[in-house]
Amino acid sequence: MRRKQLILLIRALRPNQWIKNLILFATIIFNGQLFNWNYLLLTTGGFFIFCALSSSSYLFNDIVDLRLDRIHPQKKNRPLASGLLSLSLAIEVAFLLAMSGLISALFFNFMFFLVAASFTMLHVGYSLFLKKHAVLDILGIAFSFILRAFAGEILTGYHLPFWLFLTILFVALFVAATKRHAELLREGPDTRPSLFQYRERLLDSYTSMFGSASIIAYSLFTFIEEPLRFNTPFKEFLISVLPQALERKWMIITIPFIMYGLMRYAQLAYEGTEAEQPEKIVTTDIPLIVSILGWGLVVIIILYVL
């Protein structure tokens, strides 16, 4: 394979979107197992499998959408839509990535394979059917995130708290709604069939509803969930000095990070030009990056130090 074709292929695989698969790590993080090397290796392996399956689905989606992408202001510059990447090569790589990902999933356990297969079928169904219909397209995006989170559970045998699971669902719906809103305003309905069925006020209401639901679900998670029960030197010190310290709902102090993150994302999505690429907003906007990293750091301190 020539170097130019390889570079174009890597672009078509969209490695910048692999950030979505980091959700697999939520299970071990929130169950205090982040530094358990067995679970960390299992989850890392699952992460790479889902990266392969995700890239396969992106290639498949580009193949299905080839005609529409060629008239889209931004998507027409994608390797396939621009004609720079061979269609036959894209088909071959998409098939190989899907097969290698699913076969690799079998070496973990059968349930993980079923989740990986469901993830693949959902993306195929999304490309062929779901994305052409309003509401179903947003739900399809959201449930792909739920399957990622569920995959992390299957790999380790631990479970995410119910309200945290709902938070993931609502945040995914919020991001999907803002994405459709941006597409409707900037490109119009001609570039995506489902956009003919949406109205701006409807998508505004979706954004408001799912954003509010995300904050409520996460707040309930921080208040209802019991603190983890495992010892560290600092915890033992707190017990000796302030016996009631570990009973406090420390996770509540992370709520402002979530509120700011959602508000900042909505601001960028409505005022900027990158709402169609959520992964670009998350990885390029400094205030949003600081908010996410701050939230992550505080969560790690609360779960593994306090």
Automatic annotation (TrEMBL):
Keywords from the named record: Membrane, Transmembrane, Transmembrane helix
Domain of life here? Answer: Bacteria
Localization per Swiss-Prot or TrEMBL: Membrane
Q: Which residues cross the membrane?
A: 21-41, 47-68, 80-99, 105-122, 134-151, 157-177, 202-224, 286-305
Chief location of this protein within or outside the cell? membrane
Q: Tell me what topology the record assigns in the membrane.
A: Multi-pass membrane protein
Q: Look up the record and report any one GO term of the cellular component aspect.
A: membrane
Q: Which GO terms describe its molecular function?
A: transferase activity, transferring alkyl or aryl (other than methyl) groups
Q: Check the record and name the Pfam families matching this protein.
A: UbiA
Q: What is this protein called?
A: Phosphoribose diphosphate--decaprenyl-phosphate phosphoribosyltransferase
